[in-house]
Design brief:
single chain, 26% strand, three-stranded antiparallel sheet, 27% helix
Amino acid sequence: MLVPYESLSDDAKVWVYPASRKFYPNEVDAVEKSVHSFVENWKSEDEKFKASYRFLYNRFIVLIADDSESPLQREDLD
């Protein structure tokens, strides 16, 4: 379930994906929509799973997942 990142536990897992360059202004909306869609559908069948993302400095995609109530499995990460 997609939730505001501020609501996630301090123990949540974090993945940082840096881009090799800043995204151009005309790319930002498409990238952010793709990331939003991914996080929204990540383990969507499990209501206990909470995740969020941040898009920082037009260069970093940060995924945050609180799996304390619903552990991530290998297939959830691939």
